């Protein structure tokens, strides 16, 4: 029995295997436990192992690659159309093999341990930032009930809260002041943890040549550069920069029929976190574009006049995504528009 493609429906404890030969005929079906999965794949010796790109897929992919087996990961949204009749583990494993057999199928690159480490740092930072925002909003609400209004930004809150605690009136009782003081201590602890994670991100930035290269692009800082390299890697899986921009959801949604093209707002597909970082970085560039006279700034000024500030920010994020793909997939260095190369 020679298995050409082995599809694995990943789970926590019980995994469904579906093996097919070169003609696509099913030659092996089995359920295996978590402890015996690696040994089962070693025994079957398939040419290709295919899995959906889920939380544990990259771990198993690295283990199977250590056996010299080619591993392909497929986005779950591309597997769903191939599920026949009802959804169960057996049909899911078969659908994975069917999807992987399509010549035009798109696959996900297997991430290294280092990439997942920096991704974990970004996830923890995002969680802590949400906790900090929720804590500040809670304290603003408590103070608002006592007649004290504070601006939304964390900086304005931290400037105003010490003065309020010192010069509080009858509404802000000693008990309420004690609660606010404890919340402030909790807020300080959260910010200390955020600074530690950002320091680790800066360390990764200094050690990565790819991060340093794309950080030369205006609007790309250490946070954005490390997040992109951790998620994308060398970007060779994208044929050109337009494909990366489309993968990030920075291109218009299309609803065309009968030869008539209808372009709508951006698709918002792909990684929301990366798209948000790119757009916020573009907004930071647009803040200082009025006083500049270089070719890139003049292009942005004209685009703002024609299409507005928000559209220009998305257009610049799209342009930066295309530049990033060119930089990560080649040995080229970034050169500003109009500069001598």
Key phrases:
alpha/beta; Nucleotidyltransferase, domain 5; 3 domains; 341 residues; five-stranded mixed beta sheet; 7 strands; two-stranded antiparallel ribbon; globular
Low-confidence stretches: none
> How would you classify the helix and strand content by structural class?
alpha/beta
Question: What is the helix/strand order?
Answer: EEEHEHEHHHHHHHHEEHHH
- Order of strands across the biggest sheet? 3-2-1-4-5
- Helicity, in percent? 40-55%
Distance between the termini: 58 Å
Question: How would you sum up the global shape?
Answer: globular
Q: Any idea what the radius of gyration is?
A: 26 Å
Question: Total number of β-strand segments?
Answer: 7
Strand count, sense and barrel status of the largest sheet are:
5 strands, mixed
Report the average pLDDT across residues.
92
- Total helical segments: 13
Strand content: 5-15%
Total number of distinct structural domains: 3
Describe what you observe in this structure.
- By secondary structure, the chain is an alpha/beta fold.
- The protein has 3 domains: 5-100, Ribonuclease H-like superfamily/Ribonuclease H (Nucleotidyltransferase, domain 5, 2-Layer Sandwich), CATH 3.30.420; 113-207; 211-255 and 267-328, no CATH class.
- 54% of the residues lie in helices and 11% in strands.
- It is built from 13 helices and 7 strands.
- The chain has helices spanning 37-44, 57-65, 76-79, 89-100, 113-145, 154-166, 174-207, 209-214, 222-232, 241-247, 272-286, 295-307, 309-328; strands at residues 5-9, 14-20, 26-33, 48-52, 70-74, 252-254, 263-266.
- The protein has a 5-stranded mixed β-sheet, with helices on both faces. The protein has a two-stranded antiparallel ribbon with strand order 6-7.
- Helix 7 crosses helix 9, helix 10 crosses helix 13 and helix 11 crosses helix 13 (309-328).
- It is globular and about 80 Å long.
- The N and C termini lie far apart (58 Å).
- The mean pLDDT is 92.
């Amino acid at each position: 029995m020679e298995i050409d493609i082995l599809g694995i429906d990943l789970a926590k404890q019980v995994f469904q295997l579906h093996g097919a030969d070169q003609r696509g005929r099913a030659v092996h079906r089995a359920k295996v436990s978590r402890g015996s999965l690696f040994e089962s794949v070693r025994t079957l010796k398939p040419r290709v192992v295919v899995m959906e790109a889920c939380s544990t897929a990259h771990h198993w992919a690295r283990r199977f690659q250590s056996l010299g087996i080619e591993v392909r990961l497929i986005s779950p949204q591309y597997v769903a159309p191939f599920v026949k009749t009802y959804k169960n583990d057996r049909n899911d494993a078969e659908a994975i093999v069917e999807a992987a057999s399509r010549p035009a199928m798109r696959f996900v690159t297997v991430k290294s341990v280092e990439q997942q480490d920096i991704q974990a740092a970004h996830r923890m930072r995002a969680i802590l930032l949400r906790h900090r925002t929720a804590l500040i909003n809670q304290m603003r609400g408590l103070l608002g009930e006592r007649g004290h209004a504070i601006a939304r930004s964390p900086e304005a809150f931290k400037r105003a809260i010490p003065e309020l605690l010192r010069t509080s009136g009858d509404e802000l009782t000693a008990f309420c002041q004690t609660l606010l003081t404890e919340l402030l201590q909790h807020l300080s602890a959260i910010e200390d943890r955020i600074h530690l994670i950002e320091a680790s991100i800066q360390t990764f930035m200094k050690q990565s040549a790819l991060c340093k290269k794309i950080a030369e692009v205006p609007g790309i800082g250490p946070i954005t550069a490390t997040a992109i390299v951790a998620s994308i890697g060398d970007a060779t899986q994208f044929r050109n920069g337009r494909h990366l921009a489309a993968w990030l959801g920075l291109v218009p949604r299309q609803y065309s029929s009968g030869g008539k093209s209808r372009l709508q707002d951006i698709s918002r597909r792909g990684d929301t976190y990366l798209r948000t970082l790119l757009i916020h970085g573009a907004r930071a560039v647009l803040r200082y574009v009025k006083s500049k006279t270089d070719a890139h700034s003049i292009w942005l000024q004209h685009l703002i006049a024609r299409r507005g500030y928000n559209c220009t920010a998305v257009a610049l994020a799209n342009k930066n995504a295309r530049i990033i793909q060119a930089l990560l997939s080649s040995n080229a260095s970034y050169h500003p528009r109009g500069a001598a190369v």
